[in-house]
Design brief:
seven-stranded antiparallel β-sheet, 4 helices, about 40% strand
Length: about 160
């Protein structure tokens, strides 16, 4: 009798964990218009060797953004914690989109995109990310949106400094 109860309890816990893993989802989106054409913004985004000079969050990117390739992103959170994140480069559409993803399926995955759109006055730069998995239910991600907004502003400042 006790083993039947234990088996049902374990099955219920597994089912709950799977449900949380499948339904866990957080979306982040920030955008900013930069007074420069998409080709110039794209050039700065592709220059991974200079990220340490201007990017306050993605302080280092090792590797090149080549579709099908892999990059190592060094991320610094607002508390100063350093996270080294491996990402697969899923899409490189010059002057339009850079898409990378990674993580551990079911636990925490990310799909991050830089989207560039020519608009009046320059380029609308959007960072769009979807995180999925069990961990999103427990992770304090409140720092992500402000950090991405900070990166977009730093990119804008970098573009403005280059145009002087």
């Amino acid at each position: 009798m006790i083993w039947t109860i234990v088996k049902w309890a374990v099955a219920l816990l597994v089912l709950m964990a799977l449900t949380l893993a499948v339904t866990g989802r957080k979306t982040f989106e920030v955008e900013l218009v930069i007074p420069a054409p998409p080709a110039e913004v794209w050039r700065v985004l592709m220059d991974t060797s200079s990220y340490g000079e201007w990017n306050p969050v993605f302080t280092s990117v090792t590797g090149d953004y080549v579709e099908g390739g892999t990059v190592e992103n060094r991320v610094v959170d607002p508390k100063g914690n350093v996270l080294d994140i491996t990402a697969s480069v899923d899409a490189v559409q010059p002057h339009e989109e850079l898409r990378q993803s990674g993580g551990l399926l079911g636990v925490l995955t990310f799909d991050h995109r830089w989207l560039l759109e020519e608009v009046e006055g320059g380029t609308k730069v959007t960072q769009y990310e979807v995180d999925r998995g069990l961990y999103v239910w427990f992770w304090d991600s409140s720092w992500i949106l402000p950090s991405y907004a900070k990166v977009n502003q730093a990119l804008r400042d970098r573009m403005l400094a280059a145009s002087k």
